[in-house]
User: Fold these one by one.
Assistant:
Number 1:
Amino acid sequence: MGIKTVAVLGAGHGGCAAAADLGRRGYSVRLHAYNAARLEPLRERGGIEVRGVQQGLVPIDLVTTDLNAAVRGADVIMLVVPSIAHEPYARALAPIIDEGQPIFLNPGHTGGGLHFLHALRRAGYRRHVMSCETVTLTYITRMEGPASVNVYSYTSRLRFAALPGRHVDAMFALIKPLYPNIVQASSVLETGLGNINAVFHPPGMIMNAGWIERRHGDFLFYREGITEAVGRVVAQVDAERLAVAQALSVPAVPFIDMFHQAGLTTDAARDSRNIARACEDSEPNRTIKAPPLLDHRYIHEDVGYGLVPMAELGRLAGVATPTIDALISLAGLAVGIDYRAEGLTLERLGLAGKSPAELMRFVETC
Amino acid sequence: MGIKTVAVLGAGHGGCAAAADLGRRGYSVRLHAYNAARLEPLRERGGIEVRGVQQGLVPIDLVTTDLNAAVRGADVIMLVVPSIAHEPYARALAPIIDEGQPIFLNPGHTGGGLHFLHALRRAGYRRHVMSCETVTLTYITRMEGPASVNVYSYTSRLRFAALPGRHVDAMFALIKPLYPNIVQASSVLETGLGNINAVFHPPGMIMNAGWIERRHGDFLFYREGITEAVGRVVAQVDAERLAVAQALSVPAVPFIDMFHQAGLTTDAARDSRNIARACEDSEPNRTIKAPPLLDHRYIHEDVGYGLVPMAELGRLAGVATPTIDALISLAGLAVGIDYRAEGLTLERLGLAGKSPAELMRFVETC
């Protein structure tokens, strides 16, 4: 009784990659987006043109703006959307999902599942939830046209957790056939606190803010933007993240080791423990330019749905996070958004007022 | 009984400018530096070659590494040294200055006089002190060789205060003939909280840290480095500075108006209230490049002896300074210095444990 039918919610880079990849591999895929104009080119083309890990034109069984039609009876509902869309999707799904219908946040970043669950319940959903998540997308991918996507690879060794955590074996068995590269994590706190994008994207953006704005990102983000000084700030953000994890007894691995495990840098750079060097020596990121604007997911997502929930978990655990706090403040001023109010607060995570012990019980049993 | 003899302590850009300018104008100048190698070229040349507001070779009456010889009987002792040198100079001067011998910190940045006084007293000096200070140097100047200096201009409308403040009329009358551009301020808190370099240099450095390190400062600091996002952070630093001043009933003027009053930007830019635009439109700063390294006074001085004492005065006044705090944290990580410990704390300012009312009395009467 494995998965046959997948509802993919979201038709951006990740959603189209998932629809094409899973469709090519024989799953019945329904692809949903709210924006009809986004889906129109797929209808005209009769599917999604894919290259990379799959090849060719992949027909999609259902391409729709009707959420109910997309999710009804699906064996898994996979949200492949920006974190900011989790809450509206939860409100829309609350009246229409079946009890225990599996939900997969791909990705959940830091606290995505907790946020989604809290929003479902606030929308009146009272039955059991079975959700799961990875910290980043299961694909390295980029759309190359309105109906074509290049899926460079599957993300390797991607940590996977369930919410509530007690269902992790069942959820892992369910999703593993879709994504054999996932590895089981102890809880959504482990996946969430393993969000390395949140550790190094915000310092890279804030400490190059003038360069990005003035030159429209015309420099190499990893090779040139993560200098020694930026690397020292990244290292301190990482130390605070590890301290929060330790206070909550959540397994966590230093940034530089995760970066290396993900195949993003050399053995020598890892052994140097120098983050600037690890980024400079990142062959897969060698040609990636900086974003052309600060108004970008490296800030919106990695601060609001990365650093903010890390700082908030620190607050819950009684661990100070001054460097993370500094970046949240400056990022907010830089782009004119109060991330401390708009990001994933304990309130939005459904964790307000909980003690560390209550938090640990909650992620296990909800 | 005006000033005839000036002891200039420090033989860098500012010290050489002061020695040459005042020497040319007929004052008897003694020039002191601890580093004999710094003075050797001046001895060989028989003085300082000056151009700009003065011209020609200016002989200096005494060029010495002997502090006692430099200051004995001088009508004013002018410290033209980095803030970090105030404390060692105070220790060295404590046993040798006369009671009430005028001391002029040129410049004092934020809290220089308080720091100097506290260090004098810790070194055992128990008599009356007569010190005064400006927030920045009285010259716009740059050395062009080991014995030659270009004095572009005198700094205009420079706020001047005395410590203790009750002597301000006497001190102002004493120094005004040397520097007619000074204007009297209510206290060293007004000069110190009017430190606009501390308001915009640190955001400009931190938010361009990668650019500076990677390109060795090869961009225009004011015209290119202070973008809209950087300007928004500068504006928030400025708002916090003004809030601290207001809580202490210290007169303070917004950054953009001070920048305009100093002749650094256009009427239109001032009226726009847009700091990025004011910096872009700064004609005098048009060609100034960024520093080649983060290891520079734009951080060391403007954070440690600018933002730190502002944050500390905020703490004393009960005013939160989260943006200033954020910049102090990131600057410290960027250059590997704990400015919260090394900079001008309330302890180093001699203000530990004082209430706002006690602070106001202290700057008046010490």
Number 2:
Amino acid sequence: MDDTLSLVLFSGTDDKLNAAAVLAVGAAAMGRKVNVFLQYWAVEAFGKDSIRKDHGVAPEAGVEGASAMARFAERGQQHWADLFEQAKLVGEGGIHACAMSLALFEITKDDLDPIVDDVEGVAAFMAEATGPIVFI
Amino acid sequence: MDDTLSLVLFSGTDDKLNAAAVLAVGAAAMGRKVNVFLQYWAVEAFGKDSIRKDHGVAPEAGVEGASAMARFAERGQQHWADLFEQAKLVGEGGIHACAMSLALFEITKDDLDPIVDDVEGVAAFMAEATGPIVFI
Amino acid sequence: MDDTLSLVLFSGTDDKLNAAAVLAVGAAAMGRKVNVFLQYWAVEAFGKDSIRKDHGVAPEAGVEGASAMARFAERGQQHWADLFEQAKLVGEGGIHACAMSLALFEITKDDLDPIVDDVEGVAAFMAEATGPIVFI
């Protein structure tokens, strides 16, 4: 089977983006190609003025979750944006923003952080998604 | 690898259902078979009296998220039920409700919108899930 | 294609863990190998003192969701921990805790329920993830 890993990022909270970035780095380290497709709230998280800001955690994280990410950073957890940079350096693949999501938010590629490589339609993404597809 | 796309719909919010429907249409457009399996809160969203109602958005969407789906509809976003209809017209596959979830909710196939093709056990779904499996 | 099912458990709510366990049992029943990788809030749910406690439901479950899991248990829904035990008995595979997540929470293998087989790095998990990868 093709071992390309296709990550569809839908969520925009820091805990899910961190988990996604860890999977991306792990897959790239094992020689897998990693393609990332940004939809909905993840598009906002990759904004050029917002990528390093606090994006909160999933509501299920509860009362302790709100402070957990800060503690994790103190304990050496890298920012997910740095991990995605590493995944791109180590392996092939790239970060693509969903064309339809940009249209819905009425933003363009210029509003996104330069870590985003390009804008792509969902059919083009699906054509490349020849291995597992992970929705986060 | 088999390129059948198996979508497990667990969530019942309109943003996640829209994202799922977009992936289904994109995959069908690329000639992939798309099988959808409805569990838990997604079963409720496909109810015959509720499918076109407001199902809210994921809590992480925040204060702006509540109004975002309405804006998206104004900007031409189709309803996810229409997109799933298109995916079924374009490609093979179908929409299956999880037998166990129906039992838990104490409802039957007749309580669901006709877009749902049949009721299926998880083992039968897994037997057909020969490609990527996406949990949304 | 390799039909090993790799489940990345990120969420720690009982509804998502139940859905994951049902997929694991269904896959094992069809002869598939099932590997589970515990990250973030799922690690806490598998704690040796907390695994059988109430872990809540996804916020999207709404006002009715809070009581739904109790009703489901009355209607014969098994606890997800029992379902994961069954999946392990029926098929191959195991439950692995993410080494980085343990470090972030400052806990060790001894703090987890014995159903967890071992601690593993993300690269090792990715090396075994030769089939679909499901993030829950």
